């Protein structure tokens, strides 16, 4: 291959994206350079801005460039419900199912002692503070039905129990071992309405 | 959906890439922001550099940040052969088939009078200059076997004829209507060796 250094480096960098191999990366690089430089500039600007400004909501740990995200600051959301999920993608999936109107808490990970991921690494100290909210009545555990997801849910269930709050586990219609992120809206809707006490 | 403006804008911008829909764009955005910020910075830097520096080789019109690309400046390439292709992706495909050692000319398009794309828009004035090279003996037409690709090949064949040079059309083993870019190396190798005079 005799592509120029800048084009070669661009193709290599585009492979940082999940699901994009060298062949797709090359097609994307040629497309942006040949046919859509404006799109390429939009991408550069949006990515640069997001990398420099997007962090985690100090209240729910969702990805946001704001100190407090829109869901946390909205007065329309039900403050008696708190749904704990592993990732921002899970929040996005639940929001697009339009079957949940409570608050969220995003772990951005799961407990994994072997990998050195303990309670503070997934923000459970921040969650502890959230559990002291007087309006809160029920915590819905929506971690993934994997070994580590279940262990994380059990750990949080103990924290919730100490605060004498209701605690439920989302009812998974999705296959065990699957990922919440990829469930369709109707499955997610059933999973929420079929939740049972822990 | 309640994603923050910066994250929403990033997802929208990532959809500029061919083959990337909103769902994939969201997965990529979350991945880069949550798990691979270094990869995101590599992408931003590489894309910004490429957009600002990569243009077309003044000799063959291939994508490059150099004035003259590596293939054109290499003394190892056979200057008696000139292969005319529609896009940089076609050059990449032919190079990885390792069955061609001559020079290239990249049209970056094809004749399309209805879309207002005439000879100068695909660099045929630059090609005219290339045809005056004393070392050149044969022009290989490797435009795609589409209606516009064939019309472009016919037009260039007339230019080559006036210069009294040999002119051949690449032998396509690929299905008519298909794209050169996606042919495998062995198909491309056969197509090159089976070329016939126009
Ligand atoms: Zn928040
Ligand atoms: Zn060149």
Automatic annotation (TrEMBL), chains A, B:
Domain Toprim: residue ranges: 80-175
C4-type Zn finger ranges: 57-72
InterPro entries linked to this entry: DNA_Rcmb_RecR (IPR000093), Rcmb_RecR (IPR023627), Rcmb_RecR_Znf (IPR015967), TOPRIM_dom (IPR006171), TOPRIM_RecR (IPR034137)
GO biological process terms on file: DNA recombination; DNA repair
Keyword set, alphabetical order: DNA damage, DNA recombination, DNA repair, Metal-binding, Zinc, Zinc-finger
Keyword DNA repair in record: yes
Pfam families assigned to the protein according to its UniProt record, in alphabetical order: RecR_C, RecR_HhH, RecR_ZnF, Toprim_4
GO MF term (any one): DNA binding
Family designation: Belongs to the RecR family.
Function: May play a role in DNA repair. It seems to be involved in an RecBC-independent recombinational process of DNA repair. It may act with RecF and RecO.
PANTHER family attached to this UniProt entry: RECOMBINATION PROTEIN RECR
Protein name per UniProt: Recombination protein RecR
Natural source organism: Pelagibaculum spongiae
């Amino acid at each position: 291959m005799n592509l120029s250094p800048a084009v070669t480096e661009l193709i290599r960098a585009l492979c940082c994206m999940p699901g994009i191999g060298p062949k797709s990366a090359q097609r994307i690089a040629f497309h942006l350079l040949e046919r859509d430089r404006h799109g390429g500039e939009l991408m550069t600007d949006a990515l640069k801005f997001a990398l420099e400004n997007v962090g985690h909501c100090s209240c729910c740990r969702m990805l946001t460039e704001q100190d407090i995200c829109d869901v946390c600051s909205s007065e329309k959301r039900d403050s008696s419900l708190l749904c704990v999920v592993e990732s921002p993608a899970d929040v996005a999936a639940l929001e697009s199912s339009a079957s949940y109107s409570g608050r969220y808490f995003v772990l951005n990970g799961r407990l994994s002692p072997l990998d050195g991921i303990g309670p503070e690494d997934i923000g459970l100290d921040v969650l502890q503070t959230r559990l002291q909210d007087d309006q809160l009545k029920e915590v819905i555990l929506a971690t993934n039905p994997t070994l580590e997801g279940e262990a994380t849910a059990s750990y949080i269930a103990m924290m919730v129990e100490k605060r004498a709050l209701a605690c439920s586990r989302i009812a998974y219609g999705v296959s065990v071992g699957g990922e919440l992120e990829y469930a369709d809206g109707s499955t997610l809707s059933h999973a929420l309405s079929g939740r049972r006490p822990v």
